[in-house]
Amino acid sequence: MAGMALLGVRMVLDTFKQSLDKVKGVQVKSYGQLCSIARALDVVGDRWTLLIVRELLIGGALRFGEVQRGLPGIATNLLTQRLRDLETNGVVAREPAPGNPGTPTYRLTERGRALDGVLRELLKWGAPTVPDAPSDAIFQMHWLSQPARFLLADHRPDEPPIVIRFSTFDDGFDLTAADGTITVDPCRRDVSPLAGVTGPGPVLVALLQGAMPLPAAIAQGVDVTGDAAALTRVLPAPQASTNVPGHYN
Questions:
Q1: Which of 96, 217, 230, 240 could form a disulfide with 195 if both were Cys (CB 3.0 to 4.6 A apart)?
Q2: What is the pLDDT of residues 25-41, one digit of tens each?
Q3: Long-range pairs for 183-188 at CB < 8 Å and ≥24 separation?
Q4: Which uninterrupted H or E stretch holds 232?
Q5: CA 226: distance to chain centroid?
Q6: Which segments within the chain are labelled E, that is strand?
């Protein structure tokens, strides 16, 4: 009887060890390949990871809650784990918030900012799929700041610099056209935009892609306050379709 009991204990321990090994395998994921693509995906290939990078590219140094607001649907514990993994791999740095050392902020390291080019290529690759997104797909205005960097251009570089504000401080960005260049930043309180833009996500995407002229976009819900002509300085010429790879130059 004692031998059978001991055997039963060993079987339980073996089962527990196998389960623990599986958990460890999930926590320490690697393709185990001597390939730079596989090695990169070991670091940033998990679900949500590149979207965390997107939020930090757009917003700079952000508190945990600010990152989470830009990632609707992510669980708090999962975001915590992803940020910890990115910090371990030198992609993200955690620092005390200015004036509030008890609250950390997260920012991209130099290595993390180098992923900007990766996301730009994903923008180009994903652009033709945007018109086919589900009708209930979530849209946040600040996400549009990244394609705006590449889709829009300063067509009147000899004119004075202008700032166009897309949406509000809660969820928006400032686009500056100056000397032939386009820059985007989180909304700033020390600037006076020449125009303001709000509207439905799909219509704004079509407008910025050049798939819809401004009058048609306004008819479909885009609202422009201030100097509407400021938008014509930066918008691309309307194209025949949004399903054109390579709109992001």
A1: 230
A2: 344 579 999 999 999 99
A3: 183/149, 184/145, 184/146, 184/148, 184/149, 186/58, 186/59, 186/60, 186/142
A4: helix 229-232
A5: 28
A6: 62-63, 92-97, 100-108, 162-167, 172-178, 181-185, 195-198, 223-226
The model's pTM? 0.83
The two tokens of residue 211 are 């798939």
Structure tokens at 237: 């010429």
What's the rounded Cα separation, in Å, for the pair 179 and 162? 10
Which residue type does 19 have?
S
Q: How many CA atoms lie within 13 A of 137 on its CB side?
A: 13
User: What is the number of other CB atoms lying within 10 angstroms of the CB of residue 109?
Assistant: 15
Is the dihedral angle over the CA atoms 74, 122, 26, 29 positive or is it negative? negative
Rounded Cα–Cα distance for residues 230 and 193 (Å):
10
| Close Cβ partners of 175 (under 8 Å, ≥ 6 residues apart) | 145, 148, 152, 163, 164, 165, 166, 182, 183, 184, 234
Task: At 91, give phi and psi (nearest 5°).
Answer: -90, -35
Residue 59 and residue 75: Cα distance in Å, rounded?
Answer: 20
Residue 231: name the closest of 173, 159, 152 by CA. 152
Give residue for tokens 């700033």.
188
- For residues 197 and 222, the answer to whether their CB atoms sit within 8 Å is yes
Instruction: For residue 175, report the phi and psi dihedrals to the nearest 5 degrees.
Output: -110, 125
